[in-house]
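INTERNAL AUDIT FORM
Audit reference: QA-55
Scope: verify that the stored structure record matches its stored sequence.
Auditor: D.O.
Record contents follow.
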Amino acid sequence: MNLDLYFRPSVLSLTPYSSARDDFQGEASVFLDANENPYNSPYNRYPDPHHRKLRKRIAELKNVPPESIFLGNGSDEAIDLLIRATCEPGVHSVLAIDPTYGMYAVAAAVNNVRYTGVLLKEDFSLDREKLLGAVTSQTRLLFLCSPNNPTANSFDPADIAYLVRNFQGQGLVVLDEAYIDFSRYPGFLGRLQDFENLVILQTFSKAWGLAGVRLGMAFANPDIIKILYKIKYPYNINVLTQELVIDFLSKPYLKDQWVEMILSERTILAQRLAGLPFVKMVYPSDANFLLVQVDETEKIYNWLCGQSVIVRNRSNVNLCSGCLRITVGTPEENQKLLDALSYYKK
């Protein structure tokens, strides 16, 4: 892989910080190398900066080599690192679909990198020629989110593959699959080796029910993963997170059960919402939420807040005028939402 095509020269040439846990790897009885407090074991010790045990367990679950896995403090860390690694501030730019997850634009702005959003079609599908037409000589990243937030739909895999291939040699395509467990499509992890410029983001925040733990995954060519580990903060994933997630990975059946229940509730909730007189559209969903177009969006949102039911008003987002984004909850939570809406009067 020609890394010069994708990464900043300063990143490629820098010497990474070397921690005590980089100098020595393995087991020992006495550690006097990292200026740690000798008491309060095991939390007195710095965590493994390369997350070896955790990456090995994820590799077994995902059928991906450990060398192709990066772990970050949420997927947001990987998003930020990818921008920093590829884009010269004030020079390069990133491209994304619109509407989509807002942190792509925020991370670009923080790094002084120009951000361009390209509108989806009216049916929320990709306009792949319009996207490629927006690419300039300075474009280094293309962000795609599938299933997309907030539109909840998955994109045609053929369109995604087309964009990745046509962006090769120009920059990296970052495919955010945070909601992939709820999708009718299998995602691109099984095709990772087909595309040298593809980075896939996944998370433990959604299907695994671990949003509070803050652990995100990036899957890519091992050369890309080496760059991310080269520039990340030394101990970005704490001991507690690594231990807890390793434990959860031994119980994937829990995640599967939760996904099954959420999908069942998603179907029921969509049907019930569609029957309400002020609901204009319940959009198809491949995620754990529904995008719902309603009359008097602000009034309904405020009414629900007054009933202690919190949803997300997305009316200020392109193509989502009059829309609420409603996460699929437990049967009891969904019923409380429906009960609150049944009492709403225009």
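Auditor finding: record pair retrieved intact. The chain has two domains: 3-250, 253-342.
Action required: none
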